[in-house]
Amino acid sequence: MNPSRPPVAATLREGARLLAEAGIDNPRLESRLLLAHAVDRTSEDLIRDLAAEADPGPFFALVSRRVAHEPMALILGWREFWSLRFQVSPATLIPRPDSETVVEAALTLFPDPAAPVRVLDLGTGTGCLLLAFLHERPLAFGVGADLSAEAARLARRNAFALGLGDRSAFLCGDWACPIGARFDLVLSNPPYIETEALVSLMPEVSAYEPRAALDGGITGLTAYRAIIDALPRLLTTTGAAVLELGFGQQETVAGLANAAGYRTDARFDLSGTARVLILRPHP
């Protein structure tokens, strides 16, 4: 055995030890994912051949990044959302499972798979909300807008990688400023964290994800106000907006929407938290 290339089992154990010491949850799982990425194999391949030798250098370089609390998704370069693989980068939020509630709510509003829905995604980031919806509604067309040009480019790459490039377009602009059309559906996961609360976020978020995608202003409501103010010129008369909510924001955001003339309906995530608010014009 080459002492500079220890067996997979020993390499995995050492990686898990380092991750555990750094306070990383699920260190054994993450060690396996990182080694699989480093040697370009699947986790299943590693488990089937624990006695095989592996070059530890690239692996421990990745472990060092994770020990510094760099998000796993940024190290791997992708994150699964809605059973689809999305490229990620420091220019965008990493897709979260809770945000799938937005997609679920949107699909219930347009249950007909053959409906030619026109969709707008504000603050599109990776494009995960828009592209997950388009994946389920094959006659829909969508536009994603983001203040970050790098994010808009990444979303476009994701669209083509998922075979949705011909049914989507991506723009760079401040919320709805570059938009001059009306849509049946508006989606958004806006920044909703109060500025003062940003310092208390876990380091994976505060140090590595874009502040502009997190900071909702002093009250956490700045983006909601901008979106709700723009809805009269964005929505068709029978359209709807589906907005992701931060914890405890349901009543406040609903109040803003009601004052602007919209009826609202909440949707809850698997933990029972009000995660989504649906806005519709009054008939």
Oligomer: single chain
Shape: elongated
Describe the strand arrangement of the main beta sheet, using strand numbers: 5-4-3-6-7-9-8
pLDDT averaged residue by residue: 92
- Calculate the terminal CA-CA distance, rounded to whole Å: 75 Å
Judged by helices, strands and strand pairing, the structural class is alpha/beta
Major sheet details = 7 strands, mixed
Instruction: Determine the CATH topology of the largest domain.
Output: Rossmann fold
Could you spell the SSE succession in H and E letters? HHHHHEEHEHEHEEHHEHEE
Report the CATH C-level class of the largest domain: Alpha Beta
Number of domains: 2
Q: At the fourth CATH level, what is the homologous superfamily of the largest domain?
A: Vaccinia Virus protein VP39
Question: Residue share in helices?
Answer: 25-40%
Quick structural summary:
With 283 residues, the protein is α/β, with parallel strands linked by helices. It is 39% helix and 19% strand.
Describe the structure.
With 283 residues, the chain is an alpha/beta fold. The chain folds into two domains: 8-68; 78-281, Vaccinia Virus protein VP39 (Rossmann fold). The protein is 39% helix and 19% strand. It has helices spanning 8-21, 27-39, 43-48, 56-67, 72-76, 100-109, 128-136, 149-161, 203-206, 222-234, 250-259; strands at 78-81, 84-87, 118-122, 141-146, 168-172, 183-188, 235-244, 262-268, 274-281. The chain has a seven-stranded mixed beta sheet with strand order 5-4-3-6-7-9-8, with helices on both faces. The relative contact order is 0.10.
